Amino acid sequence: MVSESIIEKIIDDLAEKGWSCRKNILPESFLNILLNEALELWNNGEFNKAGIGRQNNSYIRPEIRSDRIFWLDENNLSCAQTLYFDFINNLKLRINKNFFLSLKTFEAHFAGYPKGSFYKKHLDQFQSVQNRLISVILYLNFDWKEVYGGKLRIYLNENNFEDILPEAGTLVCFRSDLIYHEVLKCTKERFSLTGWLRRDEGVFPV
Ligand code: OGA
Ligand code: MN
Fold first, then answer.
1. Which of 66, 90, 97, 115 has its CA at 20 to 30 Å from residue 59's CA atom?
2. Going by CA atoms, what residue is nearest to atom 6 of ligand 1?
3. What are the DSSP calls for 57-92, one per residue?
4. 197: exposed, middle or buried (C-beta count within 10 Å: 0-12, 13-18, 19+)?
5. How far is the CA of 8 from the centre of ligand 1 (A)?
6. Residue of minimum CA distance from atom 5 in ligand 1
7. Which helix (H) or strand (E) element contains residue 33?
8. Residue whose CA is closest, atom 8 of ligand 1?
């Protein structure tokens, strides 16, 4: 579904700078299916308030993040989600090979940002369990405009950053332990499919 040459570019980006942003990597029809799946869940009230921290110790901190999430069940994926997981699996194999890692699992959720929501500057790796190694975000918003805000801000260092529009078909990957990032306040509902490639807990000293 995603060409080998794009996967190659993502690997090169990760090696060079620890993050990657590639636009239009998937067909519009496919993105539309994923968006509609997210919208149906959203409209049925299936998204939950997102917490900070790990699942069992997670607590709601609306001053830090105000998005809502719906975790995908890897044993109960739709066709489109299965295709996406196949692509991620391919990406995982390439990352493992190139960086001598042993990424094993992928956890993913749809994220919905209601109007006015945001996610303050943070790292995706938890301090307690450092098994999230690579964050992968696929945006699902067609015709996203600058005025809607909701940009992903990737921090290159303390003083410099790069902003990314959450436009449908843009895929962002980054090192979960290194890359600080934030979601700027949006003025329109904003959807994505966000996931993490993980090594198994306890496999490496942390
Ligand atoms: C996250 C996150 C960024 C985005 O869910 O941890 O940082 O652009 N998302 O949605
Ligand atoms: Mn994050």
1. 115
2. 124
3. G-B--TTTB--EEEE--TTS--HHHHHHHHHHHHHH
4. buried
5. 23
6. 194
7. helix 28-43
8. 152
Q: What is the pLDDT along the chain (206 residues), one digit of tens a residue?
A: 899 999 999 999 999 999 999 999 999 999 999 999 999 999 999 999 888 877 666 778 888 999 999 999 999 999 999 999 999 999 999 999 999 999 999 999 999 999 999 999 999 987 777 899 999 999 999 999 999 999 999 999 989 999 999 999 999 999 999 999 999 999 999 999 999 999 976 544 43
**Is the four-CA dihedral 72, 73, 74, 80 of positive or negative sign?**
negative
- Measure 150 CA to ligand 2 centroid, in angstroms: 13
Q: What is the residue extent of each domain of the chain?
A: 4-199
Q: For the domain with range 4-199, which CATH number is right: 1.10.3720.10, 3.10.20.30, 3.50.50.60, 2.60.120.620?
A: 2.60.120.620
- pTM (2 decimals)? 0.95
Q: Is 61 helix (H, G, I), strand (E, B) or coil?
A: coil
How many residues are given for the chain? 206
- Among candidate residues 132, 134, 123, 138, the one with its CA nearest the CA of residue 174: 134
